[in-house]
């Protein structure tokens, strides 16, 4: 019972910490770079799976990013590539929730390492390079110098952060769209590619990410 109690405490504490990071602007702004890395990695991975050629990834100091691919500027491959970015953090977080539920916390750290290495190989600007290296250094420090319980808590924190951090950018996206500052956003690209309203795609991002959060929360808190 003590072990179960300790694990429940870790789940709750890491969830609260992740919520605080996502909620408070001073914490969210630097942490959002991690969400951007995963966002762009999602674009890149799906582009490759869809048969597009990956040219590079750029990460910017305003926490925006850009994934450059080559291929037909229309069709299912382009649509799936554009769709992948905003849902990538939540989908990855859902996968991590499944892993930590079966006590495979080491696998979470390994997947994070592989993801960062893949982005590092493709990053094409100085800020992006240092952003990925810094994130990787934190991950390496936890994996190499901390005990298994600390690594486990860190895996839970990453999981909660991706799940919660996947929802907030969708709201930020729609806020920018209302102000006319996101004409080339993923949602607006999808609107042009499919002839459907951009708001429809924003709603899809939101419900996918909220659904992933709800399902993962049931696993983690249940």
UniProtKB/TrEMBL annotation:
<feature type="transmembrane region" description="Helical">
    <location>
        <begin position="78"/>
        <end position="100"/>
    </location>
</feature>
<dbReference type="InterPro" id="IPR037219">
    <property type="entry name" value="Peptidase_M41-like"/>
</dbReference>
<feature type="transmembrane region" description="Helical">
    <location>
        <begin position="128"/>
        <end position="147"/>
    </location>
</feature>
<protein>
    <submittedName>
        <fullName>M50 family metallopeptidase</fullName>
    </submittedName>
</protein>
<feature type="transmembrane region" description="Helical">
    <location>
        <begin position="106"/>
        <end position="123"/>
    </location>
</feature>
<feature type="transmembrane region" description="Helical">
    <location>
        <begin position="199"/>
        <end position="221"/>
    </location>
</feature>
<keyword id="KW-1133">Transmembrane helix</keyword>
<keyword id="KW-0812">Transmembrane</keyword>
<dbReference type="Pfam" id="PF13398">
    <property type="entry name" value="Peptidase_M50B"/>
</dbReference>
<feature type="transmembrane region" description="Helical">
    <location>
        <begin position="153"/>
        <end position="171"/>
    </location>
</feature>
<dbReference type="InterPro" id="IPR049500">
    <property type="entry name" value="Peptidase_M50B-like"/>
</dbReference>
<keyword id="KW-0472">Membrane</keyword>
<feature type="transmembrane region" description="Helical">
    <location>
        <begin position="6"/>
        <end position="28"/>
    </location>
</feature>
